[in-house]
Structures are given as structure tokens and as C-alpha cells.
Amino acid sequence: MDKNRVPGIVVARLPVYVKALNLLLREGRSVVSSEELGERLNMTSSQIRRDFSYFGGFGKKGSGYDIVSLMEALREVLNLNHIWQVLVVGVGHVGKGLLNYDGFSRQGFEIVAAYDADDEVIGTQVGGIDVGDIDELEAFVCTSGVHIAAITVPAENAQEVSDRLVKCGIRAILNYAPILLEVPEGIQVSNIDPVLKLQNMTYYLE
Predict the structure, then answer these.
(1) SS3 for 149?
(2) Cα dihedral 114/115/116/117 (nearest 10)
(3) Which among 3, 56, 93, 98 would be 20 to 30 A from 66, CA to CA?
(4) How far, in Å, CA of 63 to CA of 74, rounded?
(5) pLDDT digits over 156-193, tens only?
(6) pLDDT band at 203 (very low <50, low <70, confident <90, very high)
(7) How far apart are CA 176 and CA 102, in angstroms?
(8) Could you tell me the domains of the chain?
(9) What DSSP state is assigned to residue 42?
(10) Separation of alpha carbons 21 and 7, rounded Å
């Protein structure tokens, strides 16, 4: 399958489907129709079937979807069939929040390292992870095989950190810094800015 032919908005909906299917399993369900899944997600059944058609469809028309099989298929499409290691650069308030969050491990992600430039933070332990000196970043990243990083440093340092990470093989960046990073083609960046999200919502408020 050519991943480049699948629209990004379709890929973004796949984890939403996985989450909904997981909830259905917890309710004791084994089969779900595209109509019911659409009702739960406020989507049309035709949109769901169209999304699934990019990956082969996953089921037979009229018989519904086997929830376990569909979850496994979607997780395989999302490359969630193994544990992904993640490192965090920047151990301020946001970085500490990520390190202390226990939801990553339940969803196939393991934070394995953290780095900071603050002498008062270096050498401490947060969420069970020893915080390293950012000067030693490359020594770990370039040899670890880790491909995902979360950047939670100040805006003025984010691009430099990004460049260093990419040179060492990082291919996906969760960016909490309030700037747009410049990265080579093929590097995935997801920008997380809660202020922008709030500003987007206030448009709809009186």
C-alpha cells in the first residue's frame, strides 16, 4: 500500500476508531456496524466505509465488523503492533507532565529517556526516568534506535533541538514549543499548542 495516497485526515481518524472499538469491547460487544460506529463518533456510515476502503475494507457488506479483528487490523495499519520508544527533551512543567503520565504505556508507547539543560533538573528522576544533560543528547539518540521525540523546550531552543534529533535518526516529533519547526521531507511533526486550540474554540463563543 502506498501510504502517501491516503489523505492525512483519514489517517488522523484511525486512532479515533481504535479508541471507540476499545470502548465497545469493554461493553462486552463483539460486532459493530458502520452505522452504529458512525452514531457514536458523529460521522456518517458512508464516511467510515470510505475511510476503511483505503486499507481493504476490513469486512463483508451487511454483516458488520468483528471488533477484535478490526482493532487488530487498524493497529497494524498504524504500526501499533509493537512498543514504540519515545524520548522527551525539556523537563519543565509540560515535560514533567508527559513523564508522569501513565497512559502512554497502555497504548504502545514507552518513554525511555529525558534531557534538559537546567543543572537543577539534570540528575533528578521524574516518572521513573533519570533526566540527562542535553549536552549528551546525541550520545544516546544516535545509538538508541529511538525514532520518536517530544520537544517541550522554550521556543528559542526548539529548532536547534529538532535539528539535533533529526540528524540522529528521529523521524517523528511531538512539538509542544510554540513555533513551527523546519524539518526535512519525510519527518513527521505534530504541533501541540493548547493556546491555539483555545483561540480556535473562542471563535464559536459569544
Answers:
(1) strand
(2) 170
(3) 3
(4) 18
(5) 999 999 999 999 999 999 999 999 999 999 999 999 98
(6) confident
(7) 19
(8) 3-77 (1.10.10.10), 84-197 (3.40.50.720)
(9) T
(10) 22
